[in-house]
Fold:
Amino acid sequence: MGLFAAILVLEFSTPPGYVFGYLYTGPILLANSRLGRVATFYTTLLAVIFTLLNLWVPGVYPSGAPALASRFIAVMALVITGVLSDRNRYYEKALAQQKAKLQAQEQLASIREDFVSTLTHDLKTPLLGAIETLKAFKQGKFGEVTPMQQKVLTMMTGSHQATRQLVETLLDIYRNDIEGLKLDLAPVDLVAVAEEIIATLTDLALTRQVHICLGYGESDFRRAMWVNGDALQLQRVFTNLLTNGINHSPRGGRVEIVLENYSYYQVVKVLDTGLGITSEEMPHLFERFYQGHSERQAKGSGLGLYLSRQIVEAHGGTIWAENRVPRGALFGFRLPAIQLQPLST
Structure:
């Protein structure tokens, strides 16, 4: 108000040729920042009225066409200032609301992650206890077990172990998202890892009646494929991709691991004979908890491929998926190769 009054005195104590109306932009901006939209409107309206009124009041000095033009230019400047300041206030308010919403979402996500992490951690102990108890039953420590009971106990043990694996995967994923994936790097032969995982998953493949085979691309000979990696984490990648291929291949189908050796990188491909991947699923396959809408992803938890992507990218590699012709899918990953120096004799 003091600034407005000072400009008003200057305006009406000088000839119309001296236009002080531009200075009303100061009170307009102050009104917008402190009082709000209504105050900005009335301040702008008063500034326009007084700027034009000075053409005839107090009437001591004559006013010509140049003074009239200057006044109208000043009025336009005041109106634009009022509109822009009001719009700026609206944008600032919208940004503040969006910021508050994002902070609330981040806080909710943090609470949710803490809850899931705590829950999964607390689930491990009773699961381990249940698995050990089932093993004791199978070994006959609580009395004689019939063949039918052995079969039931084996199924229950497998179910509990699968649940435990899911719990551990959840823990790893949340830990990796928060702390980053920590790798114990050393030279690793991908061929040896692939052979080990195939042996581990043979029973699952027999249950699904799926044949697993191992190939070396254009070469028919086994040769080492060395990378600088974490053997345990790379085993998990092989397990996830191979299990995915087994689960989504039909009975009597075939899953093939193809290992390709290049000068600067090593490539692993897992090929199945399932239904393939729809165009809607393709961009989301490696997202956390994504299961898709087709039969292909119906049995998964949406965690295996996400964790595999975390591990591969932590090794400086890339992972991808594509459809095969005429049917089936290919999941592959590429890692930087290392050349081991032969031992001197």
